[in-house]
Structure formats: C-alpha cells, structure tokens
Predict the structure.
Amino acid sequence: MKGYVFHGPGQSAWEEVPDPDAQDPTDAIVRVDTVTICGTDLHILRGDVPEVRPGTVLGHEAVGEIVEIGPDVRTLQPGERVLISCISACGRCRFCRAGRYGQCLGGGGWTLGHLIDGTQAEYVRVPFADLSVHPLPASLSSEDAVLLADIFPTAYEVGVLSGRVCPGDTVVVVGAGPIGLAAITTARLFAPERVIAVDVAPARLEAARKLGADAVADAREAPGLVGDLTEGLGADVVVEAVGVPETFEMCTRLVRPGGHVANVGVHGKPATLHLEDLWARDVTITTGLVDTHSTPTLLRMAAAGRLPTSQLVTHTFPLERMEEAYDVFAHPAETGALKVVLGGPQREVVPVA
C-alpha cells in the first residue's frame, strides 16, 4: 500500500509502505476512505514534535471501513463505516476512567501519526478499536464526519469548554484557521454576547464572518476593537488557536481580569508568561490535548445538521495527490485553504476569497 511518510524535518513523501497487521487483540484494520491534513502535521514536518520518528506514516483523522478486527474487539464488525478518532483510549487506566483519554497511560492518547503509523495511507491499524473508532450513520457524509476526528472536538473541548464560555460572554478567537473556525461555531452553542475573530489573513476573517463571528479584526486592530466593545475590560474568554509565542502573549493582553485564556495551538517554541502583568488579574490559563469525550455528542449534532462542518472544506483531492494537498494546505495565504480533504467523492470546491 502507499502512505505519506515523515523522513525528518522538511522531508516527506507519498510512497510504498508495508500493509498494517493486527498486533494486539484489541486492534482493528481500517481501509481508509477519507482523510484530512491537520495543522499539527505541519508542526511535525517543521520539526516541532520531536517524538515523531523518521519513517512514520502521518495523519490522525480518517473515515473508513473496517476490514479486520482482533479477537477482543466486541462492538465492531468488518464492513462497518467508522470515524477514526485522533485519540486512542485503553479504557482501563485512571485517566481513561475519568474520560481524559488524551492522557491515557495504557498505550493510548495521541498515538496515530505520532508514536505509531497514522491514517494518511490506504490502510491503518487502530489500537483499542472499541473505544477509538465510532460507527457512522448513513446520513452523515465522510467529508462531514472526518472533521469530527480532531478539529471540532479539539476546538470544543480545549477551547470552548476549558475556556468556560458562558451566555453573555465576549469571546475572542485568535487564529481563524480550521481550529479557530471550529471554536467560533461551537462557542456560539453557548449564546455568548459576541464572538470576535482575529487573524492576519483577510480570507480567513471573511470565513469567520460566514461561520458566525460577530466582529473580525487584524492582529494590529484587535486590542482597540476588543477594548471598544467591552468598555475597556477585555474579553471574558480568549482562545489561542495558532501556536506561536506572539499570539499567546496577545491573548494574555486581550483577556479581562478574572477571565480565561484557553490555549489550543501547538507550540514549537517557548512563549513568555508575563506574570509581572498577570499576577494580580485573576486570569486562568488552560492548556490541553483533546480527549474526544465529546465526539459522540458532536456526531449526533452533525447528523442533525447542527454543525457546519463541510463549510470548512475548501479543497478536495484523491489520496494519491497527498503531496499536492500538503502544499496547498501549507500555503493558505496563496491558496485560500482552510481544510483539505482527500479521498471519498471528489467535488469542485471554490476557495474562500
């Protein structure tokens, strides 16, 4: 089979790799139908995630069909169409028992495309299959479903829930890429007074407006706009959805006293925590890896048409054009890319202008 292989920072290729075999009795082998590329994959290619060994197949989001199950898999059958979660869960350790699957101590957590071969291939081995894949209703397209493998649960859990968005809040989302846009749409489920999107790309700010942002601002304009809209107090919740020091530090300047900064971005460099400014302001800062405990809920909402998942998809490709898809996704300023989907039925997509 073929897969997209990481060979070291700046080096990757769509190439022949061994077919996966079931290694443990709780494994499933899935034939991949639809995958997507994550900003975290770009961080890996830049060398920001040193745990990823050269030779690893990338990817941690997919929809596919189960072709083989181990003898201890109880809730799945070959032939089922499933969503592969970005997080695997052993189901037995103290963190899994508390629903904190991202911190699994039993061999799970973020493993696919990180510690073991991932989903950007024709087939993938999924560990702990009973808890790590989700059967899909026929009414939900693969293109819609694949965005629920990572970006929607990440934005919802690490951004909105950890940020404690409440009715009447002013919410600022810094970074209007796929995660930031998912944070905007899921924050609106809690009836905030306003959601403000901050980015440097006009196309992404326009996408944020279409997906429900009440106001948008260039990074240079953000402090003035947030101050004007909050009578100088600052935002109740600020979601960091970029992963660079400058945007994290911006978030700590935009939040009000007693507010929350929810860091979602993957950081490859240290960021300065200005405690000389923050120590007396009662600010809560949260970080986290997604647990995907919300995935079943989000799947039901998507099936009911309550989440605009496919509106984030700007480009589709067949699997064998993986290298081209990465190039498009890595240069959003030139391509207008938000979310890139590979496999499944192809369609014409007009980039956000």
User: Anything to note?
Assistant: Confidence is low (pLDDT under 50) at residues 347-353.
